[in-house]
Amino acid sequence: MSFVITPPAAVAVPVVGTSDQFPVRRVYCVGRNYAAHAREMGFDPDREPPFFFCKPADAVIPVACGETLTLAYPAQTSNYHYESELVVAIGKGGSDIALEQALEHVWGYAVGLDMTRRDLQMKMREMGRPWEIGKAFDASAPIGPIHPASEVGHFEQAAIWLTVNGADKQRSDVTHLIWSVAETVADLSKYFRLEPGDLIYTGTPEGVGAVKPGDLMVAGVERLGELSVRVA
Question: In whole angstroms, what is the distance from residue 115 CA to residue 132 CA?
Fold first, then answer.
């Protein structure tokens, strides 16, 4: 078989401490999954069913341990926001996954950033239109190396944080997730068949805000280390 154009390169995220790579199939994101963040965005944080949006796989930008990614300030925005997140890497496929078996489908975890053109997201929301231009743009999903769950365990409790130029901006714990990792996996699998290679960005805590060229963001999750990104 021949292709009429050159196929795009596969997107893959390094596995910590090895030369192995985790291939990325799809990227799912959970909206407003911390109550305090829901409040700061103007919403009632009552425990309603989770909602999801997607980013393209090639929005994922891997960052190796100890390295700092230089990320260009994106076009068509003047309100470029960080959102630090715990990322789940799916290693076993399934549909309608039972809550009790959900964590069996998780291969590992990473630190990620859901970068957002907030002004465009808000404009689309006010117009009742999809969020893609605010959320699914190029290089909008930086991610650190993936840590196998067999080594770091699962994340019912872990600190999550983000600093900008050394100043605390986000500091919380994944215990404050409205929908836990297991609940998120189980619910998402009702709507999409999950497959190995899927990533789930599980939501961000309160304290989101804008960055400008020259700013250095450092996001972290306990047991997963930190992800360092500078805005060009």
Answer: 12
User: What is the largest distance, in Å, between two alpha-carbon atoms of the chain?
Assistant: 54
Whether the CB-CB separation of 142 and 69 falls below 8 Å is answered with: yes
Per residue in 177-186, pLDDT tens? 999 999 999 9
Alpha-carbon dihedral angle through residues 179, 103, 157, 170, given to the nearest 10 degrees: -60
Per-residue pLDDT reduced to its tens digit, 113-152: 999 999 999 999 999 999 999 999 999 999 999 999 999 9
Residue type, 108: G
Kindly state the DSSP code that residue 146 receives in the 8-state scheme.
Answer: B
Give me the amino acid identity at 4.
V
Q: Looking at residue 186, what DSSP letter applies? A: H
Domains and CATH numbers, the chain: 15-231 (3.90.850.10)
Counting every residue, how long is the chain?
232
What sections of 89-191 are H helices per DSSP?
Answer: 118-126, 132-135, 149-152, 181-188
Contacts of 90 (CB under 8 A, 6+ apart): 105, 106, 107, 185, 194, 195, 196, 197, 198, 199, 200
* Neighbouring residues of 68: CB distance < 8 A, sequence distance ≥ 6: 216, 228, 229, 230
